[in-house]
Amino acid sequence: MATALIIGASRGIGLELVKQYRADGWRVIATARKQEDCDALLALGAEPHKLDVNNVEAVAGIGWKLDGEELDVAILNAGVYGPRHDGFPMETDFNAVMHTNVLAAMRLLPVLAPMVAASRGDGKLAVLSSRMGSLSERSSPAGSLYRASKAALNSVLIDTALVHGKQGVTCVAFHPGWVRTDMGGDSADLSVEESAAGIRNTLATLPASDQATYRNYDGTTIGW
Ligand SMILES: NC(=O)c1ccc[n+]([C@@H]2O[C@H](COP(=O)([O-])OP(=O)(O)OC[C@H]3O[C@@H](n4cnc5c(N)ncnc54)[C@H](OP(=O)(O)O)[C@@H]3O)[C@@H](O)[C@H]2O)c1
C-alpha cells in the first residue's frame, strides 16, 4: 500500500490532502500540534503524531518514531503568513514566520528525505511554498516577510534535492493556488478540494528528477 506523510494536517489544505489520500486507499501518516486534531485525524483513518514543527525535540522525536518508514509521498504543509500589514517588521513576527516556514524545513527535510529515498525509487518530497516566493516572477512587494520566507523555503528545498536527489528523492515546491482556507480567506479562487486534487495529480504524474522543481497545483512550472 502506498504511504503518504502530511506534516501540518489539522485544517486547510493539509487536512484535505489527508482526506483525499485516504479516500484513494493510501496509508496516511499525519501530524498536528493539538491532541483534538490528532483525534480527528485518527477518526479519518490516518496515523496521527503530535508535532509542533517549531519544537526541536518533537522534530527529532518524529525522526525516531518514523524510523524505517518508506514514504511514497511526504508533504511539508505547515506554514504561517504572519502580519497582514507591511512596513517595519517586528522581531517577534520575523521569528514566527521564519521559524515555521524556513527553520522547521531545514530541520525536517533532512529527516524525511531518507524515508522518501527508501520508497520504491520514485518518492516525492514536497513543500507547500507559494508563488509569492518566486524571485523571477515577482511583481508586487506586498507580504514581504511571507515572500522572503517562501523564497528561503525554496532555497532549502533546492539544497535538499542536491543532497538527496541522487538517492531517488524528487523534490517539489508547490504553489497550491489561492485557496479558501483560514490563510487564503473567503474570496480566494479555489476550494481545498480543487487544490489538493491538483497537488496529488501533479505528484502522481511528475517524472522522477534529481533536481528540484517549482510547480503550480495544476502542474505548470513556476520560475524560481
Ligand atoms: N491558502 C492559500 O491561498 C495559500 C497560498 C499559497 C501558499 N499556501 C501555503 O499552503 C500551506 C497550507 O496553507 P493553508 O491555506 O491550508 O493554511 P491554514 O488553513 O492557515 O493552515 C495552516 C496549517 O499549518 C499548521 N501549522 C502552522 N504552524 C504550525 C506549527 N508551528 N507546527 C505545526 N503545524 C503548524 C496549522 O496547524 P494549527 O491548526 O495547529 O495552527 C495548519 O494545519 C501553507 O504553507 C501556506 O503558506 C497557502
From TrEMBL:
<dbReference type="InterPro" id="IPR036291">
    <property type="entry name" value="NAD(P)-bd_dom_sf"/>
</dbReference>
<protein>
    <submittedName>
        <fullName>SDR family oxidoreductase</fullName>
    </submittedName>
</protein>
<dbReference type="GO" id="GO:0016616">
    <property type="term" value="F:oxidoreductase activity, acting on the CH-OH group of donors, NAD or NADP as acceptor"/>
</dbReference>
<dbReference type="Pfam" id="PF00106">
    <property type="entry name" value="adh_short"/>
</dbReference>
<dbReference type="InterPro" id="IPR002347">
    <property type="entry name" value="SDR_fam"/>
</dbReference>
<dbReference type="InterPro" id="IPR052184">
    <property type="entry name" value="SDR_enzymes"/>
</dbReference>
